[in-house]
Structures are given as structure tokens and as C-alpha cells.
Design a protein that fits this description.
The chain contains 9 helices and no strands. It is mainly alpha-helical and 227 residues long. Helix 3 runs antiparallel to helix 7 and helix 7 runs antiparallel to helix 9.
């Protein structure tokens, strides 16, 4: 087995050390809630869809708090938490993109493409994380900017699914509480900006890990040649 493969194998094995924790369970539950949300939204049960997203965001908030307070931070948790975030963002962005594209408002139809930015960013993050694992390096854990962007995304999406024109559960029953289109668009743009600020904040750490891993592999190769 080559040294690179051995390093990757050991890295994956280390991920599952001490993985049976409450924060990791919450992350798994968050992942399981994704298809529940999609089905509810697709069946136009928007009230329940809002509740599911709210619970998902709540679990995202508490898993980190519990992990730090009770010393339940694990290597798997550092991966599982952002993966759950990204898959949730991906699902919400897809259903809202489709909903906006089918809206009667031409402005909403034209604005639908903005949700593709969330999808593109999270696809890059997931592929990047897989690449880091393949290189024998652990993906960078979520930092402040990442958590802030995720919180903003959850908050904005709950507001839209609750009060947005043509998509809101509450505004459908109480039209007076409908969010103006302009306000809704501004909120989404703010969430997009924060998302990409978080994305670029990950790059230095990821590049540093790749560089360090490359240096270790080079040193190992040189040692073998000396022998």
C-alpha cells in the first residue's frame, strides 16, 4: 500500500474515533430532516415545512454549544456538521429556485437564478472536502464566518417560506403580512454575500493544509530515495 493511501486510510479511521455523541446525532437528524422538508414543501404544506427548517436551524445552533460545553467535539463532528449545513442549504435552494421559476411574478422568475449561487457554492465545498480527504487531509472545520452565514441563510429562508409573496405559508392565510418583493430580494442578496464571505474565509486554511500535506509527502519520498 502506498504511503498516500495509508495516510488517507488512517485519516478516515481517525474520523470515527469518539463519534457516538449527541452533537453528531443532532447533525444526523438534521440530514434526515432534509427529505422531510422537501416532501412537505412539494406538497404545499408550507407551515410544516417552515417548522422543519426552524427545528433544523435550532439543532444546528445547539449541536455546537453541546459539543463545546460537554467536551464532545469529535473529528467526525467537525465534518458532519458542515455537511449537514450544506445539504440543507442545497435542498432549500433547489425548492425555492423551482418555486420562484414557477411564480406568477416576473420579478421573482428573474430572481430565481440567485438561488443557484447557493447551490454552486455548496457543490464546490462538498467536492473540495472530498478532495481534501482523498489527499489524506481533514476538511477545514466551520469557522465564525461559516456559522454566521448559515444562521443568516436559515433566518432568511424561514422568513421567505413564512412571509414571502406566492411562497409564504403565513402570508397565504394573512395577506397583510406578505413581505414586499424588494425586501425579500434584499434579504436573499445579503444571505448570498455572507455565504461567499464564508466561502473565501475557508480557502486560506484549506490551501495551508494542502501545502502541508504536500510537504509531508515530498519529505517521505525523499526519505525513501535516501534509503
Amino acid at each position: 500500500m502506498s504511503e498516500e493511501r495509508k495516510t488517507m486510510s488512517e485519516n478516515i479511521k481517525d474520523l470515527f474515533k469518539g463519534c457516538l455523541t449527541i452533537p453528531n446525532l443532532l447533525s444526523v437528524i438534521r440530514i434526515l430532516l432534509i427529505p422531510v422538508f422537501a416532501v412537505l414543501f412539494y406538497n404545499n404544506q408550507l407551515g410544516w415545512a417552515v417548522l422543519v427548517i426552524f427545528l433544523s436551524g435550532l439543532s444546528d445552533f445547539f449541536d455546537g454549544k453541546i459539543a463545546r460545553k460537554f467536551n464532545q467535539v469529535s473529528a467526525l463532528g467537525k465534518m458532519l456538521d458542515p455537511i449537514a449545513d450544506k445539504l440543507t442549504v442545497f435542498a432549500i435552494a433547489i425548492v425555492l429556485f423551482l418555486k420562484f421559476k414557477s411564480a406568477e411574478s416576473e420579478a421573482m422568475q428573474a430572481f430565481a437564478w440567485v438561488f443557484l449561487l447557493f447551490i454552486a457554492k455548496d457543490l464546490i465545498m462538498l467536492l473540495g472536502g472530498a478532495l481534501l480527504i482523498a489527499l489524506g487531509t481533514r476538511p477545514v472545520a466551520a469557522e465564525f464566518y461559516g456559522k454566521a452565514a448559515t444562521f443568516a441563510f436559515y433566518a432568511v429562508m424561514v422568513i421567505i417560506i413564512g412571509f414571502g409573496p406566492e411562497v409564504g405559508a403565513i402570508s397565504a392565510v394573512y395577506p397583510n403580512f406578505t413581505l414586499p418583493e424588494t425586501v425579500m430580494f434584499v434579504l436573499v442578496v445579503i444571505a448570498v454575500v455572507l455565504t461567499f464571505v464564508a466561502f473565501f474565509s475557508y480557502l486560506p486554511g484549506a490551501l495551508k493544509q494542502i501545502k502541508e500535506n504536500s510537504g509531508k509527502n515530498k519529505a517521505t519520498s525523499e526519505q525513501k530515495e535516501d534509503k
